[in-house]
Amino acid sequence: MDALWLGKKGQLTRTGIQMMLARRVRQAGITDRIHMHLFRHDSATRAADAGLSAEASEFLYGWTPGSPMTRHYTRATKVQRAQEAARKLIDRIQRLNAVVSV
After folding, report:
1. Do both 87 and 100 map to the same domain?
2. 6-53, pLDDT tens digit by residue?
3. Is residue 59 domain-shared with residue 23, that is, in the same domain?
4. How many other C-beta atoms lie within 10 A of the C-beta of residue 61?
5. What is the dihedral of CA 61, 62, 64, 67, to 10 degrees?
6. What are the entry keywords (predicted)?
7. Which of 27, 35, 72, 78 has CA 20 to 30 A from 89's CA?
8. Which structural domain range is residue 17 located in?
9. Is 12 within 8 Å of 20 (Cβ atoms)?
10. Do residue 27 and residue 61 come from a single domain?
11. What is the pTM of this model?
12. Which residues, 6+ apart, have CB-to-CB distance to 34 below 8 Å?
């Protein structure tokens, strides 16, 4: 298999990738904890949010059929959608209150 990540001396090791990521995070001034698995997590969450089927997710991410991971990411996106809907509703109510109190 060909390497996905290459450095000046060839294929990067896992440690090399982690060090590169940590350096870029510092350079960007990001204070949140950023790690390599976060990219997999974000990808799976976005795939579930986009409607990727459980079977396709299991195949793509290497989970066994019926894996709790599939439910984990699906539940996470449902919570995120509910939070976003609540934020929009609160914003709308606040705008209406501003109009009514004028």
Report:
1. yes
2. 888 888 888 888 998 999 999 999 998 888 888 888 888 888 888 888
3. no
4. 16
5. -20
6. DNA recombination
7. 72
8. 1-34
9. yes
10. no
11. 0.58
12. 21, 22, 25
